[in-house]
Amino acid sequence: MNKRNVLLIVVDQWRADHVPHLGATHLRTPNLDRLCRAGVTFRNHVTTCVPCGPARASLHTGLYLMNHRQVQNWIPLDARHTTLPRAVRACGLDPALIGYTTTVPDPRTTHPNDPRFENLGDMMEGWRPVGAFGPGHEFYFGWLAQKGYPLPQNREDIWLPEGEDAVPGATTRPARIPKELSDSFFFTEKALEYLKGRDGKPFFLHLGYYRPHPPFVVSAPYHDIYQAQNMPRPIRAATPEAEAAQHPLLDHYLNHTRQSNFFTGAQGMIAGMDEATVAQMRATYCGMIAEVDDQIGRVLDHLEETGQMKDTLIVFTSDHGEQLGDHYLAGKLGYHDESFRIPLVIVDPDAPEQAGRIEDAPTESIDLMPTMIDWLGGEVPRACDGRSLRPLVHDAKPADWRTELHYEYDFRDTFHSRAEGELGLGMDECTLLVVQDAKWKYVHFTTLPPLLFDLANDPGQFTNLAEDPGHATIVAEYAQKALSWRMFHADRTLTHYRATPNGLERRTPKGEPA
Questions:
Q1: Full set of structural domains in the chain with CATH
Q2: Can you name the residues that pair with 410 across neighbouring β-strands?
Q3: Which of 116, 241, 418, 455 is spaced 20 to 30 A from 392 at the CA atom?
Q4: Is residue 434 predicted with pLDDT exceeding 60?
Q5: CB-based contact 369:360 (threshold 8 Å)
Q6: 3 state SS for 337-385
Q7: Catalytic site residue 91?
Q8: Can you give the pTM of this predicted structure?
Q9: What is the mean predicted confidence (pLDDT) over 183-199?
Q10: Which of 133-137, 290-294, 481-485 has the lowest mean pLDDT?
Q11: Residues 87-118, buried b or exposed e (16+ Cβ, 10 A)?
Q12: Of these residues, 52, 91, 286, 384, which one is catalytic?
């Protein structure tokens, strides 16, 4: 039997510019470096949408947001889509999941009283959960209780800084939870339990980590690995007001993004944080990355010790990025690169000669599902918007590979944000899409004014050229690119079938009968 394993590592909120192999000199990640040395690192990779639920829906379906339509964390995912776990099952493997997918079920397939509708997202159907976080993190909290850890009345308080006198917010203090009971340790323990239980049998494991997702606090000794004064300075205008003048959507987020979403119990707005506070937030964020990196190392050690690395495709990525104080923002939102650019490393045992290489071609999160199914020898669904990255991994880029990056965002009202109402828009008017290459970044809104940035001369994206008559031709060209992109990727689930006098015919993408 040709044994094929897949380890899909999905961290949460890890920015693309926090990969030392790509030049992040302020950071140390020996185990991510291990993967980069063994595989191919993608320099120009984005998630095709944010936040968590939509991003994971694109990763697991290979579809753009405009096609899968799980446009926010609370929006259901249509049950008709072929998801990654379903496609993996068709390859003869039982896909296991550690972590979460932030998926709301299709209400047409269950009853309105289904308790999964009480959560912002649950488990995507088709996975075998072997280490779920649980609704409200309850499985993790139960594990803590079983370990004898005294949970506070408000369980989220485990992510407060240590010490009764601690002030919530960016701090040098460690988290109250010890590192051997952190959520990153919990996920790793579940991964090792699962892999050891398989005892060498073929596996497909989605290994998810909650970090470096907020709350921005980390256990000792990771809390003081990095110092604030050594962090890169934020990319932002002179004042929040100057930043807000760029666009109505940015103005909304600058006035409504609260620190409490990122630091348990904190007060005030993110835009009000000074550079010293942002620098401490960044140092803590890097400490969170260090913890995850150590835990990933434990899993890699097991695969090496058991001789399974030679049979295992390893994919390391994140669901989305993090603003981390850039443009006076935090989280994943809007149209800035920091929210959408994410790391991607693929270690393919079939391509050892490519070890350590960096690939510059534009790649998108929708490419991962077809890549893994292709590697397993399965059939990639016709509806997929993404393409297998295996040719790029083998340094054989197809002549017709994409030349731009594309990503989308839906900013309708949620429990945390009310952009829709404040901007006076209808629910289905709250959308934007980005077409971006090495020279230009064009942001198209359904009803709000567009944006155009000259990336060569304005890499920080401070000057909007969309209203400049001298750039009208560029705006028209990239608006046309956006329209053509949407037309090409319109749903094609059944469009390769046709009735003929001889019965049903199935055509190939190039138009010939299959």
A1: 5-407 (3.40.720.10)
A2: 431
A3: 455
A4: yes
A5: no
A6: HHHHECCEEEECCCCHHHCCCEECCCEEHHHHHHHHHHHCCCCCCCCCC
A7: no
A8: 0.97
A9: 98
A10: 133-137
A11: bbbebebebbbbbbbbbbbeeeeeeeeeeeee
A12: 52
